[in-house]
């Protein structure tokens, strides 16, 4: 059995930020992730300036392309509202691999199946043992499923379903566009051009509302992609999209159970309006590392439910 003081389940932004912080403080955790890096990741890859600050990224630290947006075009009930801002986008395929590599900790490709707590330790599949266990495995994180379903239940109304596609494309429109409530969608849609001619398009919606209305997320996808073609954003049907789901912020704010913690999407920290979760993931990863090393309570600042107030202000 492999014994480590701290094991992090999940090597995405939350787990990588936690691992990086722990390593800076002199502790080397073990990260378990069911995929090897780099791996495909369904995500728009929206990055706020605060994320760069939290990760202490400066200048040319990041070796891959970062798309910078000084304007976002919001579309609401037929109105186009261009808003000055300072935001960024990355390809998660590149960003996640670089982030976990930067942490400088061991990463094992392993799918966690069973976790028990025994004699003050967490035992994973009779193969790994640790004193502190951090769940950073996303919506379906096994740490959440094992220890937090009762203390931090997920309300059905907080479930978001999304479909999106990121693919190489000869981009002619280089500005970011966001649409809200088109065709009765209880959510938003996006057109996000990235560096090296990669395009990310997608939609996200409240599953509970879709179900009540008898709507289907793929029907909404077809409406959206047809509109993109009519408006000249794309010239033909995009490749088949991939789907995922996540939970936006909800209470109670129970992120710790004994020495087990949940962070990032496992904790449900995405914003309601735009599903922005990377900031919450990185912040929670850093804060849990601080809490363990300094033997303090794991406390997150009350997370904002909406991204728009920050995005609307020039940075």
Major pleated sheet: 8 strands, mixed
Shape summary: globular
* Helicity range: 10-25%
Poorly predicted ranges (pLDDT <50, ≥5 residues)? none
Q: How do the helices and strands follow one another from N- to C-terminus?
A: EHEEHEEHEEEEHEEEEHHEEEHH
* Helix count, DSSP H or I runs of 4 or more residues: 8
CATH class of the domain at 2-46 and 90-155 and 249-311: Alpha Beta
Q: Alpha-carbon distance between the termini?
A: 49 Å
Q: What would CATH call the architecture of the domain at 2-46 and 90-155 and 249-311?
A: 3-Layer(bba) Sandwich
Estimated radius of gyration: 20 Å
| CATH fold node name of the domain at 2-46 and 90-155 and 249-311 | FAD/NAD(P)-binding domain
Strand content: 25-35%
CATH superfamily of the domain at 2-46 and 90-155 and 249-311: FAD/NAD(P)-binding domain
Beta strands, count: 16
Instruction: Kindly name the structural category.
Output: alpha/beta
Average residue pLDDT: 92
Notable traits:
alpha/beta; FAD/NAD(P)-binding domain; eight-stranded mixed β-sheet; 25% helix; FAD binding; Flavin-dependent dehydrogenase
What does this structure look like?
It is a single chain. This protein has 315 residues and is an alpha/beta fold. It has a domain of 174 residues: FAD/NAD(P)-binding domain (3-Layer(bba) Sandwich). Helices cover 25% and strands 31% of the residues. The protein contains eight helices and 16 strands. Helix 1 runs parallel beside helix 3. One of its GO terms (molecular function) is FAD binding. Pfam families: FAD_binding_3 (PF01494), GGR_cat (PF22578). This is Flavin-dependent dehydrogenase.
